Amino acid sequence: MSPTFPAQPGPADALPADRAVLDTQVVLDWLVFRDPTALPIGRAIECGSLHWLATQPMLAEIERVLDRGVGAAWLPDRPAIRDTCRCVGLQAEVSAFPTVRCADPDDQIFIDLALAAGARWLFTRDNALLRLAPRAHARGVSVVRPADWKPPILPGR
To answer: Which of 46, 75, 104, 138 sits in a 20 to 30 Å window from 14, CA-based?
Structure first.
C-alpha cells in the first residue's frame, strides 16, 4: 500500500512539522521491511507532522539498494516506494562544508543535510552516525534510533 500525504495543511496541522532526515536503512525499514520501530516515523511523515528531507543522491541510493539484493529477496512495491520518495516534504541540496565529520564517508550526506537544513531529527541505526549524537545535539539535531523515538502528541490527534 502506498503511503498518502496531506495535500494542503489544514487546521489540524497548525503546528509546524518537524524536519527529519532518514538514512537509507530507516527508509527501507519503513517502506520495504515494515519494521515496527520505523512505522511510527512513516506515519508521522504520512500525516504531515514530520517533513522528510532528502537530497537527490539519497533518493538515488534507495533506488540502487532496491536494485541489489533487497529487490529480489523482499519483492518490495517499487512503484509505491518511488511515489513515496517523490512526495518527500523537501528535497534539498547541501553545499556547506561539514561542521561534524562522520567516520563513514558514505554517511556524511545524512549529517550534512540534517545540520544544513535545520532538521530536528536524524533517524538511523548506523553506529557511525549514532556516535555523532552529542555533537549534533549541540547544533540542534537529535540523532536517534527509530526504536528510541517517541512521536510528539499533537492536539486533536
So the answer is: 138
